[in-house]
């Protein structure tokens, strides 16, 4: 059963969905730009057989507050406050696209809080051509003001984000979407190389890996998350 809940994290209230055994290790899911916790519905039940799954609506998305003040750093602060309010120490963390950037920022800034990290088709933080997206017609399930603010940061990331990837201590699985993804795959491979305990696998279905191939994605992610801890490696890439 999935419960819909919310929690106050400083000035922002975050909505989230929770499922899985109460006593299972926590797994936090962070969605892409313009999505929300429901985006994980196809894969959350498989994870919930082994983990206490907490899928968030990040600020400006879904049922969480739309405060009008947006940055990837603020989203990262929201998530760490969310963990603190719920009394969650170390967690496993999965982030897709924008949510993956929030996830690796958290792992950079609070390495002790992330046990294992899964980054799904996440761009390496290097400058890219800047574009101005057009607002879709009709009502949106996210605050449009959030989009240009976040896109600006993704297009022109803080150089420290790249430098600090080497400080991530969590075992990290980077899932690439293959040649049909709009995210440059050489950058995804570079991201995995820069994380000391990083490895990369490719599931060639495009950017929306967990949606296009939910069974393959959950099998790969669970094989990584459920492995027993052994001696730490300096680097592993496949």
Walkthrough of the structure:
This protein is an alpha/beta fold and 238 residues long. The protein has a single domain (3-225), classed as Alpha/Beta hydrolase fold, catalytic domain (Rossmann fold, 3-Layer(aba) Sandwich). The chain has 8 helices and 8 strands. It has helices at residues 44-48, 72-85, 98-109, 146-155, 159-163, 185-194, 209-212, 214-225, and strands spanning 3-9, 12-19, 26-30, 52-56, 91-96, 114-120, 171-176, 198-202. It has an 8-stranded mixed beta sheet with strand order 1-2-4-3-5-6-7-8, sandwiched between helices. The chain is globular and about 45 Å long.
Quick description:
Helix content is 30%, strand content 21%.
Amount of beta strand: 15-25%
- Give the overall average pLDDT: 95
User: Helicity, in percent?
Assistant: 25-40%
SSE series: EEEHEHEHEHHEHEHH
Number of separate helices: 8
Work out the number of β strands. Answer: 8
- Identify the strand order in the major beta sheet: 1-2-4-3-5-6-7-8
Largest sheet: 8 strands, mixed
Number of domains: 1
Principal-axis shape: globular
Low-pLDDT sequence parts = 230-238
Q: How big is the Rg?
A: 16 Å
Query: Structural class of the helix and strand makeup?
Result: alpha/beta
CATH class: Alpha Beta
What name is given to the CATH topology? Rossmann fold
Q: Ends: how far apart?
A: 36 Å
CATH architecture, by name, is 3-Layer(aba) Sandwich
Q: Going by CATH, what is the homologous superfamily?
A: Alpha/Beta hydrolase fold, catalytic domain
């Amino acid at each position: 059963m999935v419960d819909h809940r919310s929690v106050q994290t400083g000035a922002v209230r975050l909505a989230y969905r929770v499922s899985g055994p109460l006593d299972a290790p926590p797994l936090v899911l962070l969605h892409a730009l313009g999505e929300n916790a429901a985006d994980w519905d196809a894969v959350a039940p498989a994870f919930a057989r082994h983990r206490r799954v907490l899928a968030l609506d990040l600020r400006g998305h879904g049922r969480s507050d739309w405060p009008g003040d947006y940055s990837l750093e603020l989203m990262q602060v929201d998530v760490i406050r969310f963990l603190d309010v719920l009394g969650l120490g170390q967690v496993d963390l999965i982030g897709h696209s924008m949510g993956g950037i929030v996830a690796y920022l958290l792992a950079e800034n609070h390495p002790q809080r992330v046990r294992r990290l899964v980054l799904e088709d996440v761009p390496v933080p290097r400058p890219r051509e800047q574009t101005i997206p057009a607002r879709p017609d009709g009502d949106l399930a996210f605050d449009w003001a959030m989009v240009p603010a976040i896109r600006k940061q993704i297009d022109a990331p803080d150089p420290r984000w790249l430098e600090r990837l080497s400080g991530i201590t969590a075992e990290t699985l980077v899932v690439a979407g293959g040649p049909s993804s709009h995210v440059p795959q050489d950058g995804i491979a570079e991201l995995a190389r820069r994380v000391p305990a990083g490895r990369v696998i490719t599931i060639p279905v495009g950017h929306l890996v967990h949606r296009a191939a939910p069974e393959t994605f959950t099998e790969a992610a669970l094989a990584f998350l459920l492995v027993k801890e052994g001696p730490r490696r300096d680097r592993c890439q496949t």
